From TrEMBL:
Record protein name field: NRT1 PTR FAMILY -like
Lineage: Eukaryota, Viridiplantae, Streptophyta, Embryophyta, Tracheophyta
Membrane-spanning intervals of the chain: 36-54, 85-104, 110-131, 254-275, 296-316, 348-367, 379-400, 424-443
Protein species of origin: Olea europaea subsp. europaea
Membrane topology of this protein: Multi-pass membrane protein
GO molecular function, one term: transmembrane transporter activity
Amino acid sequence: MGPQALGFLSLSAALHSSKSSYCLIAANNTACSPPQFQIIFFFFSLYLFAIAQAGHKPCLQAFGADQFDEQDPEECKDKSSFFNWWNFSISSGIIVALFVLNYIEDNLSWGLGFGIPCIIMCLALIIFLLGTMTYRFRIQSNVRNPFVRIGQVFLNAARNWRTNPEAISKKEEAQGILLYQGSQQFKFLDKALLAPDGSGENFSTTEIEEAKAVLRLVPIWTTCLGYAIVFPQVPTLFTKQGVTMDRSITPSLQIPAASLQSSMSIAVVLFIPIYDQILVPIARAITRKPSGITMLQRIGTGGFLSFLSMVIAGFVERERLKTAVEYGLVDMPKEIVPMSVGWLLPQYLILGIADVFTIVGLQEFFYDQVPNELKSIGLALFLSIFGMGSFLSSFLISVVEKATSGPRRDSWFSDNLNRARLDYFYWLLAALSAASFAAYLYFAKSYIYNRRNSL
């Protein structure tokens, strides 16, 4: 549906462009609203693209990772690298879009700006289909649907909540169950071994361990929300800061404030080869682990860098406010503060490096730690962290806005950024990041991997 959605967006933009030209000629530059059908068609295209992305993002990445044999040591190493180079490719595409497509849309045509990605996606789809005969496909087993299977384990354990622990121990002994460390967690699920009231269906240890593996993901998912709350500030508050600062490269050339986001993607593109080709082999030689460091260690490293970026962002914003005061620009929000936009680069670059650790680590973690039939669902869980983080960020901004605004005072998010206190908000985010990072360390330390070959 992606090519169709982009095709519809291109057609919608072309129709709007021709209609706008007609309005300017016919009405002597007076405003002219687009027809209702055109508005509906435009939003239909956006929602269609969103649906396409929801199906494309988790499934295609899981499909790519499935092409590696987990039983082969060399392919196991390559699978870890796959997530690195996947994000390298995504970031490279973002850089091209920010520089090339933004220029085309601003200076040539929005229809062409949507049309070029549409053509590229059609070509990509053709190339993908040409490789059909070379792909590895997992053999589908005849076991029950994993959602039903895991859900029934929880239901059966709840029905047996009064069961004597001795009965569970006897059942385990009767089945010859060999307990490992992970089995000691969430012991209440072991009650699903017995059929409720002596009738109905009981479950195998393997099925119960699957349910435990899913439950172990919840604390990691929750504690990573602190990282996800920071993420939405990049295209919003960081950009607002950049608009007020000196963005001149030459007397006649300025950097668009929104293009500063490309520095994050550039950081990802530059750091991934360094991480994959230099840091991982060094760490592998020390730890003797195929991926160098564990997935949870990788995620935690990015969480710390995210905290560090917010601390730096707060100090940079405080310096910008001091400069505005020194030059008497506090009540002149449209004037450029004589402070180079380059001051913002550290917070962008650190967050870009943090993405290499946390985002790539989360992708691999949620792919690896769910049951085999739920790989794409695992990656959807990873994406849901950032969706929930966006909602929480909006909620937090609303609460702070209400708490800090008043009849005789400006809120932290005043329209006049020189009277706002984004530095306080960044430090609030740093505190939340520190708290979530501490909670993450606690749960990561006690986390037991679902597979023995997991790192």
